[in-house]
Amino acid sequence: INIAEKGWVSLDVIASGVGGHSSIPPPKTAVGKLAEAIVRIQESPLPGGLSDVTAQMLDGLAPSLPFYQRVIVANRWLFGGLLEQMLGASAMANASMRTTIAPTMLKASLKENVLPIEAVARVNLRLHPRDTPESVLKHFEVVLEDHRDIELKIVRGSNASPIASTTGEGYQAIAINLQRVFGETLVVPGITVGGTDSKHYGEVSDNAYRFIPMLVSPDDLTGFHGTNERISVDNLAGAVQFYLSLIQNL
Fold first, then answer.
1. Quick one: which of 9, 17, 11 has its CA closest to 119?
2. Averaged pLDDT for residues 47-73
3. Domain ranges of the chain
4. Which of 7, 8, 78, 128 could form an SS bridge with 159, CB 3.0 to 4.6 Å?
């Protein structure tokens, strides 16, 4: 049951260069400078960590783990670096521990034989609750301080949501009805790595929970915002049963 939602910020990385005809290029074009900056950004991730929501998730998972993994989780003061490295091997687990970086859009010359005086990349970052749009901007300004002709600009963004309680009535209602419908199930808190409309409930509620009563496989995840986005018939039926149980037992 996700008790928080990551924030987000879109940064424009703007490289300046000399215009003109492509037959007489400078040593580095605006596109070349931009490419170097993007590589540096992707090679300079923000710090991760095993605190806050991640710590609550690990504590909830610990009883079901093999002995050696329980030892590692229980002694994060000693094995924190190893545990973070292990979790970082999974794209989903890595996204739950830190702010992620995804260059998604590019803009430069309008013609193949024209040198652009400006090249722009838009980078979308999903913010861990420990980070803000401003702290992310400062981080990458330091990363790129030796890159001439590069400017960073915040386009728009939003902080992460508040962290909801795991002891409140709402969380317990979801957990109880989850086990009613799906049987004995381990219930642990987590963080939503994307954005949802539930953040708007923060204006009218102390606690907002992000949860879908479905068994989502790695193959299903690849369909989000992609080709053949779908859920299975069994998952649809299970979701209906869960919400019926939740409403009837409130």
1. 17
2. 93
3. 52-96, 169-248
4. 7
